[in-house]
Design brief:
Layout (H helix, E strand, L loop, with lengths): L4 H20 L19 E6 L8 E7 L2 E7 L12 H4 L14 E5 L2 E5 L1 H19 L4 E5 L5 H15 L4 E3 L6 H11 L10 H4 L2 E5 L3 H4 L1 H13 L4 E6 L4 H5 L2 E4 L5 H14 L5 H7 E5 L19 E3 L1 H7 L5 H8 L3 H12 L5 E5 L1 H4 L4 H15 L8 E4 L6 H7 L15 H11 L14 H10 L4 E5 L3 H4 L3 H8 L5 E6 L11 E4 L8 E4 L4 E5 L12 H11 L13 H10 L12 H6 L3 E2 L2 E2 L2 E2 L28 E5 L15 E6 L15 H6 L5 E3 L1 H7 L6 E5 L4 E8 L9 E5 L27 E7 L1
Parallel strand pairs: 6-7, 6-15, 8-9, 8-13, 9-10, 11-23, 13-14, 15-16, 16-17, 24-28, 25-27
Antiparallel strand pairs: 1-2, 2-3, 4-5, 4-17, 11-12, 18-19, 19-20, 21-22, 24-29, 25-28, 26-27, 26-29
């Protein structure tokens, strides 16, 4: 086919870029991209949400010759308005590395052997059945993630909870979003943010609580920066434990000692009350005060159980509780100058300022994660800055469907798609929709994620199916859980797209279709459901995780519950799932609407999205006739909690004298199994490192690039030093990103967790350092 000049230039640019990429990182098979059908250079574009993080950017994927060859931002998506970050722009390259899993593998005589995928699925079904017959229904489990599509998580829950009768269903969002959920539930009685990204266009004060948005949510951060550039009165305050790129871009950076955000939040509330900045009309009409148990432990022992029940207190009692948190007292605990605490309180307390607070893992991966979520809500509730444009406490997510698949579908041990297993009405509704006896659905939760892997170690769980996640890199106190998975009488099934340390421990590996190689739906941080069509074909025998589960369910005799054909199963699953959320509090958009649009926010009522919940001007679920209706609670009020400061589960001492903090970098996502196979991202940051404060480095005699041994009570790693890089920790702290499987920092971290949410604390444990 003849090419015109424009097509020739495009084709030449693509060929040149791919050749360069292959030279940079030889493990990537981009050469095949040059062999486009008809060599026409013609590109067709289709919409999709981005595969990475929980922002939910809309992208347009360019396809030529059956390959995804390009990405650009979707201008019709209100999330990103045509902009992407570096991961988004290069996302489609993650489909085409040479070591892509395309055939099923089964362990035979200690070796992994390729087999037809139908044979592998037969083995999975038979092992699942045998394990239940020998050890009972709770000896089997499935572990997914916030990268599961909504249909993936829905059929997993239906099979395990509805058909097999076990609540052993968990997702890795337990490791990143569980405290956000329990924070919402304890304060509002209902999950997910009341605001939306549009708040960034209205607010003039942004406070990021332990959240490096410039790297973790760069597109959202760019919207904040654009707002500040457009309007002269916009301020960004970075409140964090280390100096980051967010700190550099902020108008003010305030550093606090790990765990002491609890004390600072209470001090802000103290100042708001002392200065009479309380919005009394709002508080008197819409708020009640409560206290819960204290000294609740850290969940480090097995079979940890804890229930938090609120006890009503008066405003006077709450005010008295705050007397221990004057700015001057809290300065001694937190290291934050009293004047800075007063400044933060003045921003929240000034009625002329619209304030949006953002947070993510810094607050959620916290042994008091639920409490610190509650305390930031307390601040907004005291001043009435909530559920209106620009006034928003906003918990961000880290995975593309942590909200849609985990929080909305309910892929946690205690959850159902519309409620909880403990509630009889919720069980009856699920049984009716799933067409199973209600007695199938166990009213008792089993294991949250950390306890699930402890149960696998103990032998209470003998069979586990892991999909779309890499726990042999991400679990805290990793060595214990890897050893447990490798015990002889455990059977591990892993569905994934590339080899990982988790596939290394598998007995069966199932090749999975990736993202745009299947049809699916994600749900992002702002309650936005996003549909994507299958754009390209999966390689070899790879199939979607949804269809893998359906295949196994049918082998187990559940054809009636999984009757769908491959041609329309996503649409049928979605319309069945919508039945759980009918009504103005959580109505989901119809399949046809989702196919047409670049995302739709729920509740979607009478053809209209809900931007701000609990506000009758925007939310059709409000029925109390007042200015706000916090309908999640029986008293129709939001709850302010008296939550104290308590120290971390493990703090530095004479033997282990440094804090260790872990997290991400902008170039890589989670364990790097996809982004490290994208040449430009891999080349930008090819390996992990440990950030050191320059003065600490000088004392150790370490310079950039030299190796440092990090030692905790659980393990150690040897890793190169980075000094005065993009991030600079304060003295006495080090930071390690966790994307690099060559440096398994989670062998060092502690598996303590928030006793309410059961979410582990990856942000602080005690270590010592040695120069190697």
């Amino acid at each position: 086919m003849a090419l015109d000049r424009r097509q020739f230039m495009k084709q030449a640019a693509v060929s040149s870029a791919l050749a360069a990429a292959g030279a940079v990182f030889p493990g990537i098979s981009f050469g095949d991209w040059n062999k486009l059908t008809n060599n026409s250079g013609i590109v067709s574009w289709q919409k999709s949400p981005c595969r990475f993080c929980g922002t939910g950017c809309g992208i347009l994927v360019g396809v030529s010759g059956g390959r995804a060859v390009a990405v650009k931002g979707d201008p019709n998506c209100s999330v990103n308005k045509g902009l992407c970050c570096m991961k988004g722009y290069h996302s489609v390259q993650s489909l085409y590395a040479k070591d892509r899993l395309t055939k099923a593998k089964v362990r035979k005589n200690g070796q992994m052997v390729e087999v037809p995928i139908q044979e592998a699925l037969d083995l999975v079904a038979s092992k699942l059945k045998q394990t239940i017959e020998s050890h009972g229904k709770d000896s089997v489990a499935i572990y997914g993630s916030g990268q599961w599509t909504i249909p993936d998580g829905y059929v997993a829950s239906k099979l395990f909870k509805g058909c097999l009768g076990t609540n052993n269903v968990e997702a890795n969002a337990r490791l990143c979003m569980a405290s956000a959920v329990t924070g919402f539930m304890t304060t509002f009685g209902i999950d997910e943010p009341m605001g939306c990204y549009e708040d960034m266009d209205h607010a003039n004060v942004f406070i990021t609580w332990g959240n490096n948005m410039a790297e973790m949510h760069p597109v959202l951060f760019s919207r904040m920066i654009a707002n500040r550039k457009r309007r002269s009165n916009v301020r960004i305050i970075d409140f964090a434990t280390r100096f980051t790129r967010t700190s550099q871009a902020a108008d003010m950076s305030i550093l606090f000692k790990p765990q002491t955000d609890l004390a600072v939040a209470n001090a802000i509330c103290y100042e708001i009350i002392r200065n009479d900045w309380v919005n009394w009309n709002f508080v008197n009409e819409h708020v009640s005060f409560h206290k819960g148990k204290t000294n609740i432990g850290y969940g480090t022992e097995d079979h940890f159980a804890f229930q938090d029940k609120g006890e009503n207190i008066s405003f006077a009692e709450y005010k008295q509780f705050l007397e221990d948190y004057t700015p001057e007292k809290v300065e001694k605990i937190s290291g934050v100058p009293a004047k800075d605490i007063k400044y933060l309180a003045a921003l929240y307390g000034d009625p002329s300022q619209k304030v949006t607070s953002f947070w993510c893992m810094g607050m959620n991966q916290h042994t008091r994660g639920t409490w610190i979520n509650n305390l930031v809500y307390n601040i907004h509730l005291l001043v009435g800055k909530i559920s209106t444009p620009g006034n928003s406490p906003f918990s961000l997510t880290g995975q593309p469907s942590a909200c849609g698949t985990v929080r909305e579908v309910g892929t946690l041990t205690h959850k159902l798609p519309h409620g909880v297993v403990m509630n009889e009405h919720d069980r009856e509704m699920a049984a009716r929709i799933w067409d199973v006896p209600v007695t199938n659905i166990d009213p008792k939760p089993t294991y949250h994620t950390v306890e699930m892997f402890r149960a696998l170690d103990r032998g209470d769980i003998r069979f586990i199916w892991i999909q779309v996640t890499n726990p042999m890199v991400t679990m805290p106190n990793l060595r214990r859980y890897r050893n447990g998975a490798q015990k002889d009488d455990r059977f591990v099934v892993v569905s994934d797209v590339y080899p990982t340390p988790t596939t290394d421990v598998a007995d069966v590996i199932l090749p999975a279709a990736m993202w745009i190689e299947q049809e699916g739906l994600f749900g992002n941080s702002e309650r936005r459901t996003q549909h994507f069509a299958q754009i390209v074909d999966p390689p070899g025998d790879a199939m979607s995780d949804t269809w893998q589960i359906i295949e196994v369910a049918r082998r187990l005799g559940f054809d009636k519950q999984f009757p769908w054909s491959e041609e329309n199963y996503i649409e049928k699953i979605w319309e069945e799932y919508r039945l759980f959320h009918a009504g103005p509090k959580h109505e989901m958009a119809p399949y046809k609407v989702l196919r047409e649009r670049s995302g739709v926010q729920w509740p979607f009522v009478n053809g209209k999205e809900t931007r701000w919940r609990f506000n009758p001007k925007h939310d059709p679920a409000c029925t109390n006739g007042k200015d706000f209706d916090f309908y999640g609670k029986k008293d129709n009020r939001a709850w302010i909690w008296a939550r104290p400061y308590e120290p971390a589960a493990e703090s530095p001492d004479d033997e282990y004298n440094f804090w260790l903090n872990t997290g991400r970098v902008i170039e890589h996502w989670h364990t790097g199994s996809m982004t490290r196979r994208i040449p430009v991202l891999h080349n930008a940051v090819p390996s992990a490192y440990v950030e050191l404060n320059p003065e600490d480095a000088a004392e150790l005699g370490v310079v950039n690039g030299e190796m440092v041994r990090i030692i905790s009570r659980r393990g150690q790693i040897i890793i190169p030093a980075q000094i005065n890089g993009r991030g600079v920790p304060p003295r006495g702290m080090v930071f390690v990103p966790f994307f690099d499987e060559s440096y398994l920092v989670n062998e060092v971290t502690l598996d303590a967790f928030c006793p309410i949410s059961k979410q582990p604390d990856y942000k602080k444990c005690a270590v010592r350092l040695e120069k190697v």
